[in-house]
Amino acid sequence: VEPPEMPLQAEEWNRLKESFRSPEMFETVMFNSMIKCNSPIDVAKSLLTHVAKSDGDVSYNLLVKYLALCVQQGQTSEIHDVYDIMKRRFKVIESGAYNLLIRGLSNSDQWRMALTLLEEVKKVMVPSRTNYESCIKAASRHQEMNLAFELYHEMLAKDLVPTLDVLQAFFDFSRGMKGAELQKELFGMLLHLRENQIYPRKTFMWSIKLWFESIPGGNWRGHLTHIKDSGQCPVCNHQLEDSDLTEEEYNNLREKLVRDVIHGTDLFRKTSPQEFQAFQTFVENRLPFDIVIDGLNVSHINPRKMHCENLFDALNCLAKENARLLVLGRKHMLTNSSNWKRDIMKEMQNKADFFFAENISEDDAFLLYATLQSGKHCKFVTRDFLRDHKACLSDSLTRHLFRKWQRGHQIAFSKKNFLSVFIQQPALCYDCVVQTTGDTWHIPYKDTLEEKYSYRVPRKWLCIQRKK
Amino acid sequence: MQSANMFLKKILRSPALPFVAQCGMKKDLLPLSRSLSLSLCLKKDNPCNHKEKLDLDAWKTVMKSGLPEVSSETVSEHKELSTLAAAHKTVEMWRLAGRLVPENITEEQLKTFMEFSSKSAQKKYLKFLHLKELYKKNNKRKMDEKRERRLETKEQASEPDEARRNSFVCLWASCMDKAYSWRTAQSMIFGQPLVFDMSYEKDMSAREVANAVRQMVFSEGCNRRSADPFHIYFCNFKEDSLYHREFIKHYREAWGKLLITVTDQCYTEVFPKDKLIYLTADSPKVMKTFDHDKIYIVGSIVDKSIKTGVSLARAKRLGLETAALPLEKYLLWNIGAKNLTLDQMMHILLTLKDTGDWKKALEFVPKRKYFGFVSQPIHELKKTLSLVNTLKLGRRHEELQKQFAKNYSKKLTRK
């Protein structure tokens, strides 16, 4: 149905309603299409009047829809009236209407009203993060930074994750303002990005840059740049943090991995205690390795070759400079078959250590364990993203550690030009997070144009330094 | 010309366009179409007609007029709303706002509703209750209709039935029950055991346990009705567990009279280990034939959150043999997980026991999960598959396929 362009009289609404195929749904459907077409509110009012006169009441459902239309068009006085009516008529208002009210009022000059509504919501349930977003934006738009920060901290205390828009609003509206306290808060937000490995979008990056440059007497200058593979910033020649974990983080990750990934709810799901025990003693007797290889994964690189040939090529490529290799496989690789030739397998076992797990065990868990046991220099080879193992880790902090470690230690390879395959896409030697030394900030950001996968890290950076 | 003007005036004076009549009168020479379009946009810009303006906010006065008596009696009530009542109010308001929320909600359900930690879980639970309520209502309506229809037919066919003089006694449900019970009782002495492993309670949510029990009730029913029933064992069954409570909900007092063996012992304590076979979809071994001397174990678990390898881990821990149904071998699989419900398992095992015919047995796999049986010779199957692939991937793939076929034949000749 298409909504009429101007207010209709009662008879005309009646006529329209009768021509509609299910008259009992007519008002709902009509209101939905009014919201979609953004019809003038007078039309909606005339329909409400018609409903009120014929039924003696307007249902809550229709009121909410009318409210949505008013919010869409920023009709503040109407929003007020609807709120009054709802409040008196229904006593309790549900979350959908509150969301609309807060959104509508926070964009108007009566934004303080939105704050009182937020208080009202708090009495019944936890407000959503978009509720907070509207209120914080409204407060900071009117330069009430203290209030905005108060709301922000309240939100964090309730375990709500702030949207990037909220953070951006803080940077936008505190441009040119002075105050150590304010600076500390905003630095805290940048550290929040660091801790959660969040990369700002390009527009957000501009807000950050402009804020830094606007600090009175700060002498900050920002530049857009690419970081070299060596991890050096071309603008300020600063060396970025390396991707190695600290001793404590490393041990933490190792412990959690054994506990959550290998043991999990039941050690039997991935392996068996005997097998794990055997593997542990095997690894400990031969430590440390330089590269650990997922044999089955590598053997599938080139489908035109035999599996064992693929693995053989890989070993030849990697076995330079006396690197100590460990290949993980399954028992079925030992049985002579069309894909696994016994003589080639024998030859390979001279070049590297092999461990064969049971056919129904998971070798990935062993791969991670062996690499972590060998120490920080050890790398591993697989095309697998290991998402399922990351998902087994119980807390998000350890998951971040895992990703960081994986970025620095996993050697990936592409299918193209098979010869140079193992001359790796280098594992990043620097850590890709927001970082600071006090006098410089380096912030990786997502370009809006390039699509970004969760496993890929941005290559573009914002370098900010303080001129002395 | 004169007549045309008259016509115009008539239209302008008509009640539908009173506004145009006022300002358009002076220029009666305007052509008809133009004056109409003009009036349209004038009206949009400027709805200052007195009658309309009064109309537009009339709904507010209507809404406010009924208020005093509603609000006065609730002010005192409003303050002493308990959390439970507040939750009830919000749920009620959600219903008014058109969300999927049940009409009636019990106190117990409200409590579970409030215990959920996330908003999405609450929403899901309310939707579940809403659908349940809907089904119940529909069922009731259908039952009523049926009863009415029965009454009508009864009135029509009031004359005595000829079937009364039939020499066979009609087998009523209770007689059937007796016959079934005899058979099941016999199977408890001579029948092949079938074990349900009831040790998964901690791996499931309350709803999954309820579903599992429901499926087990179904499978017990179809076992009882079969020609040669299994002797059903519930092993690892804990007294007063969630399983137990759910079973009593279903069976009431019949729970004590069921012809099955319920024990808190493990199956390894009841039966010799080498006779046991654990059926699990994760097993690397595929079942070839149904063995009448073995004791099959079915894990009574419903895992909606796809916990792979839970039952395989259990079998591994106890060192039991495992097996999976040969679904891949007989069916062209389409979608869905390979794990089947417990009653489907029961149907399949019963059919296998009676006939040993895989095709017949696998009829009980839900139709949506597979395209068809792998019945035609393999080369025909390959043809259709390659046709599908060419349609999907284009010509290039066809050439690859040919190359593959060549290599393949080479390999064969080498052997």
TrEMBL record, chain A:
Keywords: Hydrolase, Magnesium, Metal-binding, Mitochondrion, Nuclease, Transit peptide, tRNA processing, Zinc
Cofactor: Mg(2+)
Coiled coil: none
PRORP domain residues: 227-463
EC code: 3.1.26.5
Subcellular location: Mitochondrion
Similarity field: Belongs to the PPR family. P subfamily.
Matching PANTHER family: MITOCHONDRIAL RIBONUCLEASE P CATALYTIC SUBUNIT, PTHR13547
Protein name per the record: Mitochondrial ribonuclease P catalytic subunit
Upper lineage: Eukaryota, Metazoa, Chordata, Craniata, Vertebrata
From TrEMBL, chain B:
Domain of life: Eukaryota
Compartments, as annotated in UniProt: Mitochondrion
E.C. number(s) listed in UniProt: 2.1.1.218, 2.1.1.221
Gene Ontology biological-process annotations: methylation; mitochondrial tRNA 5'-end processing; positive regulation of mitochondrial translation
Cellular component, GO annotation: mitochondrion; nucleoplasm
Domain SAM-dependent MTase TRM10-type: 180-372
Gene3D superfamilies in alphabetical order: 3.40.1280.30
Enzyme class at the top of the EC tree: transferase
Reactions accelerated catalytically: an adenosine in mRNA + S-adenosyl-L-methionine = an N(1)-methyladenosine in mRNA + S-adenosyl-L-homocysteine + H(+); adenosine(9) in tRNA + S-adenosyl-L-methionine = N(1)-methyladenosine(9) in tRNA + S-adenosyl-L-homocysteine + H(+); guanosine(9) in tRNA + S-adenosyl-L-methionine = N(1)-methylguanosine(9) in tRNA + S-adenosyl-L-homocysteine + H(+)
Keywords: Coiled coil, Methyltransferase, Mitochondrion, S-adenosyl-L-methionine, Transferase, Transit peptide, tRNA processing
Name recorded for this polypeptide: tRNA methyltransferase 10 homolog C
Organism: Glaucidium brasilianum (Ferruginous pygmy-owl)
Lineage: Eukaryota, Metazoa, Chordata, Craniata, Vertebrata
